[in-house]
Design a protein that fits this description.
The protein is an alpha+beta fold and 712 residues long. 36% of the residues lie in helices and 19% in strands. The N and C termini lie far apart (55 Å).
């Protein structure tokens, strides 16, 4: 029997199952991030998303050597939306870690104290504030004047929505007494009453009716025409800051008060709390008021109050150590499941989707839900044990769905008493509905996948859409709709990425056929060809990500590109590692963050004749930029791989790692031939021995502090 790793508790997974499960979770969470942050059209519930991300973190904690380079725990937000210029944030806009119960909150406090070396009796204050369910926005002021406004985007780069932000009454244009440089961060939202009034107007005028206030706020802020934004009743709560020319205050609470005096609206429910007990009490108080606040919240955010301690705690890759979001529980509803549809993704995964009779859950109308996989539909887990008391899911069933926040729910239960007579057992397809190729399910994989590869139109189209997406080639004027059109075009077809870059030449050979079609003219055709040519010069990491190789996300592509440096080095290494053995293979899997599953997928993509030929045809059309070597002149450890072992006595392990990474080093959890330096404290064991065997330089903590002293 095939084992579904998605149903196995993290601590019961084998290493192979854990690797497969991390791959599945990465794919699901990347798709969810794009739907929520970019399209403002979420496809899974907050509760489902949180559960997936939490499972990913649990598995990474149990199997740290399997953490993927494109791990969802290292990602913030999603790809940028089309239609706006880009602004790079001086200070990254990060997401928050989550807490779901009182135990999680207590553990958060314990982690903070351990990191800082504080005892339970030592005082430690926090702030607690409602988590507004809206769209994050950063406002930059210089000499008291609003210079620009940007959405969070992917955390590093956001969309320029300055003209739209100026239309929001809660956002002051001029500040009196502000620092010379001040980036104010907060949430754009819409009140419940304004949301209902907007939808009533939209329905009367035949416009778009929004599913919930969050989507309405996001859609209103992301209008190309700022006049539309002006007509929408948007509000803004300030709760944080980015770049500063001078400090606002010494504490989080006082800094929020300072923002209030500068003219920003802040949340009156923000409170200073001493310890987890007071945090939980304030959480309960806010939860009781939730229904009467007049705006949507989905939890309470806790932050260490002392800003010096915040600075000392620092950040993980995507979240601050000093803050956490305590989320509210899910909501339930019953409705009719009208149909089960199968969608085929870029990697060939057959994903079942429930089409629901629209139902309102907590004020939000939902009509779709994920059904996960064939086992879930059949009412069993990976081991064949019953779930939902063994009740399967059939078309026509009366089903219970749940959601938390503002997104599409999950099917949780079935009411057999309302099952229509004659409702047939759902037969999950064993052939691809798009190309009729066999759909197989590998050992340890919860998902059935089409084996059609390049001949499967669904996979081909989805791969092309991925190729031109924001994180990849980002070709202006060649989006998902245009990809669909060209893929099915008889005269100027685009069947693989290389075809994009031969489009102008083929159009000329066919006597300018594109400009003579409906919706196209000479200017629009020329603009498209020019936009394509602008992308012929591409960074190595962008190309690797754009290829759409399974398991290779943006972070992994950057990691691989940095390691090899050039396209020729990548192709040579992949050729030498084609038998999944030897020095080149060991070098590949030795990259911190690249596991055997990702490495195998990468090597096989280059080893398959048809796929390699397609890649080579593409590369021949491009100028691929090498990765610039980092300037290591300012740091004695930049670019080095460092391992810490034993007990550190003058700083915690977490602080040591953060310090090393801040100086440009790469911190690994294991010693290998690639290790440059081992920092060993008392109690160092097998790692110290292995380092000695490999001839790796080993120093103690004092020598480490002396080494980085000037740079720190």
């Amino acid at each position: 029997m095939t084992i579904d790793s998605s149903k196995i508790a993290p601590d019961a997974l084998t290493k192979a199952q854990a690797e497969a499960e991390l791959s599945r979770l990465s794919e699901l969470l990347q798709k969810a991030n794009a739907a929520y942050h970019t399209k403002d059209a979420p496809e899974i519930s907050d509760a489902d998303y949180d559960a997936l991300k939490r499972r990913n973190l649990e598995i990474e904690a149990l199997f740290p050597d399997l953490k993927r380079a494109d791990s969802p725990s290292d990602q913030v937000g999603g790809p940028l939306a089309e239609g706006f210029s880009k602004i790079t944030h001086d200070v990254r806009m990060l997401s928050l870690g989550n807490a779901f119960d009182a135990e999680d909150v207590t553990e958060f406090d314990t982690r903070i104290r351990k990191y800082l070396g504080l005892d339970e009796a030592d005082p430690l204050a926090y702030t607690a504030e409602p988590k507004i369910d809206g769209l994050s926005l950063s406002l930059r002021y210089e000499q008291g004047r609003l210079i620009y406004a940007a959405t969070r985007g992917d955390g590093q780069v956001g969309e320029n929505v300055t003209a739209n932000a100026r239309m929001i009454d809660d956002i002051p244009q001029v500040l009196d007494g502000a620092p010379d440089i001040l980036e104010v961060r907060g949430e754009v939202y819409m009140s419940d009453a304004d949301f209902q009034a907007l939808n009533a107007t939209q329905e009367t005028q035949g416009g778009k009716v929004f599913a919930n206030p969050r989507n309405a706020a996001a859609g209103s802020l992301r209008q190309i025409d700022p006049e539309i934004t002006r007509q929408r009743p948007l509000k803004f709560f300030a709760y944080a800051w980015g770049a500063l020319s001078e400090r606002l205050a010494d504490t989080q609470f006082a800094a929020i008060e300072r923002l209030k005096t500068l003219g920003f609206k802040t949340n009156d429910l923000t409170k200073r709390c001493d310890g987890p007990d007071e945090l939980l009490a304030h959480y309960a108080e806010i939860e009781q008021q939730r229904a009467t606040l007049g705006y949507d919240i989905d939890g309470v955010v806790y932050k260490v109050d002392d800003l010096d301690l915040q600075a000392r705690l620092g950040f993980r890759s995507t979240t601050p150590r000093w803050a956490v979001a305590h989320k509210f529980a899910a909501e339930l509803a019953w409705t009719r499941l009208e149909a089960i549809e199968i969608q085929v993704g870029r990697t060939g995964a057959l994903s079942p989707v429930a089409r629901l009779q629209p139902v309102t859950v907590g004020g939000v109308v939902v009509s779709n839900a994920t059904l996960h996989n064939e086992d879930y539909i059949a009412g069993r887990d990976a081991k064949g044990n019953p779930i939902r008391d063994g009740k399967d899911i059939r078309e026509g069933d009366w089903v219970q769905v749940y959601r938390a926040g503002d997104v599409i729910p999950k099917v949780a239960d079935v009411d057999l008493s309302k099952r229509p007579k004659g409702a047939e057992l759902y037969a999950f397809p064993h052939v691809c509905p798009e190309c009729n190729s066999a759909a197989l399910r590998e050992e340890g994989d919860a998902v059935r996948r089409c084996t059609g590869g390049l001949i499967c139109p669904a996979q081909a189209v989805e791969k092309l859409k991925h190729f031109v997406s924001r994180g990849a080639f980002d070709i202006e004027g060649l989006g998902a709709k245009q990809v669909e059109m060209f893929y099915h075009d008889d005269q100027l077809p685009i069947k693989e990425p290389a075809d994009i870059f031969t489009l102008r030449a083929r159009d000329a050979e066919n006597l300018s056929k594109l400009q003579n079609r409906d919706g196209w003219g000479e200017k629009s055709a020329t603009n498209l060809f020019d936009a394509i040519d602008e992308r012929r010069n591409i960074p190595l990491n962008k190309l690797l990500f754009a290829l759409g190789i399974r398991h290779v996300g943006e972070s992994a592509a950057s990691l691989i590109a940095t390691h090899y440096g050039s396209w020729s080095a990548v192709t040579e290494a992949m050729d030498q590692a084609s038998d999944l053995a030897g020095e080149a293979w060991e070098d590949l899997i030795g990259i911190d963050g690249v596991g055997t599953v990702m490495a195998t997928s990468l090597v096989l993509a280059f080893a398959q004749d048809k796929e390699r030929a397609s890649i080579d045809r593409l590369a021949a059309e491009l100028t691929i930029q090498d990765v610039a070597k980092p300037d290591s002149s300012g740091s004695p450890v930049a670019g080095k791989t460092i391992v810490f072992t034993g007990t550190l006595e003058k700083m915690t392990r977490a602080e040591a790692k953060a310090r090393a990474e801040g100086l440009g080093a790469k911190v690994s959890g294991s010693v290998s031939a690639k290790t440059d330096l081992l920092v060993a404290g008392p109690g160092a064991g097998s790692k110290a021995k292995k380092a000695a065997d490999l001839g790796v330089e080993t120093i103690d903590e004092d020598a480490w502090l002396s080494l980085i002293g000037d740079a720190g």
